[in-house]
Design goal:
- This protein is α/β, with parallel strands linked by helices.
- Helices cover about 20% and strands about 20% of the residues.
- The strands form four sheets. A six-stranded mixed beta sheet has the order 10-11-9-12-13-14, sandwiched between helices. A five-stranded mixed beta sheet has the order 3-1-8-5-6, with no helix packed on it.
- The chain is elongated, with a radius of gyration of 32 Å.
Length: about 425
């Protein structure tokens, strides 16, 4: 099965912790702090690779992680930076947040590389915390946290022309004639189980990319058959070409087929119907005596829509060049902006100022302070050190937590619990 959708979990690297150490040299009994900084964690980066056209690499593996940064060392040695994780995807891949469905990035157009998750910052070694009053700090800053995210990768192929039609109308044969693509041809519904991309290389016609979209059936927009899985690949095309069985070899009515597929396009996305459309009546070599009759019937049926109609044979090549010229002209006159999805969500945006804090009094009289802002602060604060505890007190005051405690009825000498640590409250 063609892999055009995958769900994966990605994790950036954690920053290496800062190091606590002191100079130990002969004749220097009281050497100062020399703990080095930790290395930055690796980023997670999506990169467009023009050599691939499916998401097959992500079908059988779910978790992808960048490398953690190394801890700092003594003698001011910095920890090694964690290696970035490079995830290669085909052009046209849309990355969405799995939980909200919001678009994170569309790997199309000028976007060839995107850092989706940054690694945690390396922690500072204890050399950074020496002051005139504390010359031997036994504290270093931990490395920044890794970031983790579940994303959905969704491939929407990029082609100038989308070839659409019911199964067995000759689309694969047509693609084989005008490009170097070699799709398998057989007489079954959904014979083409993947969009086939080919570059048109007919003499005297500038190259363009055409996509053979797998055969659709009525109800495709509602997920019947495989249609819903492939309708997304039509979204980026400039021109749509209906390839229908003009000779009605299997008893199909070309007019009804075109109307049915247009109805599916409208149901899936109303903007699809606004794209230029061309009708190609295939297999006309089978019934040359009815060619004009069928041609006139289809032209009359879609006169109001203004769809150009061509009678062709993918087998003999009759009328194919004229059809290709019409495709190129329609592309040249295409005025709608290419479909590129706007970013709705940036996973690197993480504003700690808006994280909630909850203050309440437990039944035993202890005042509880909790929330993600508190957890994050405790992750890089050493309450056992003088400098760390001073920072902690300043944090409570500046973040308005002292006022929240007062509002909850706290008095001097009452017990406060924060992150599992208890202390007596005194106004500062």
């Amino acid at each position: 099965m063609f892999a055009d959708r995958a769900k994966i979990r990605i994790i950036s690297g954690k920053g290496g912790n800062g190091h606590v150490s002191f100079r130990r040299e002969k004749f220097v009994p009281d050497g100062g702090p020399d703990g080095g900084d930790g290395g930055k964690g690796g980023d997670v980066i999506f990169v467009v690779d023009e050599g691939i056209n499916t998401l097959a690499d992500y079908r059988h593996k779910y978790k992808f992680a960048a490398q953690n940064g190394e801890e700092g060392g003594k003698k001011n040695c910095h920890g090694k930076k964690g290696e970035n994780l490079i995830l290669k995807v085909p052009e046209g891949t849309v990355i969405r947040d799995a939980e909200s469905g919001k678009v994170i990035k569309d790997m199309s157009g000028d976007c060839k590389e995107y850092i989706i998750l940054t690694g945690g910052a390396g922690g500072l070694g204890n050399q950074h915390f020496a002051t005139s009053t504390m010359q031997a700090p036994k504290y270093a800053k931990p490395g920044g946290d890794a970031r983790e995210l579940e994303v959905i990768l969704e491939l929407k192929v990029i082609a100038d022309v989308g070839l659409i039609g019911f199964p067995n109308v000759g689309k694969s044969t047509f693609i084989s004639r005008i490009t170097h693509a070699t799709p398998k041809v057989a007489n079954y519904h959904f014979t083409t189980l993947q969009p086939i991309l080919g570059v048109v290389d007919v003499p005297n016609i500038p190259e363009f990319v055409i996509a053979d979209i797998p055969g659709l059936i009525e109800g495709a927009a509602d997920g019947i058959g495989l249609g819903h899985e492939f309708l997304r690949h039509i979204e980026r095309t400039k021109v749509l070409v209906h390839l229908v069985d003009g000779a009605s070899v299997e008893g199909r009515d070309p007019v009804e087929d075109i109307k049915a597929i247009d109805a599916e396009l409208m149901k899936y996305d109303e903007d699809l119907i606004k794209k230029p459309q061309i009708i190609a009546l295939n297999k006309m070599d089978v019934c040359p005596d009815k060619k004009e009759e069928v041609l006139n019937k289809v032209k009359e049926a879609f006169k109001e829509e203004g769809y150009p109609v061509f009678a062709i044979s993918a087998v003999t090549g009759e009328g194919v060049n004229e059809l290709l010229y019409a495709m190129k002209e329609a592309m040249d006159n295409f005025t709608l902006a290419p479909t590129v999805y706007d970013t709705e969500y940036d996973p690197n945006d993480f504003d700690t100022t808006n994280l909630p804090v909850e203050v309440y009094r437990r039944d035993d009289g202890v005042f509880i302070v909790e929330g993600p802002k508190i957890d994050k602060m405790l992750g890089y604060t050493n309450l056992d050190s003088e400098r760390g505890f001073a920072f902690f007190q300043r944090f409570l005051r500046e973040q308005g937590i002292n006022k929240m405690l007062e509002k909850a009825g706290i008095e001097e000498g009452d017990t406060v619990e924060l992150g599992g640590i208890q202390f007596d409250y005194y106004e500062s």
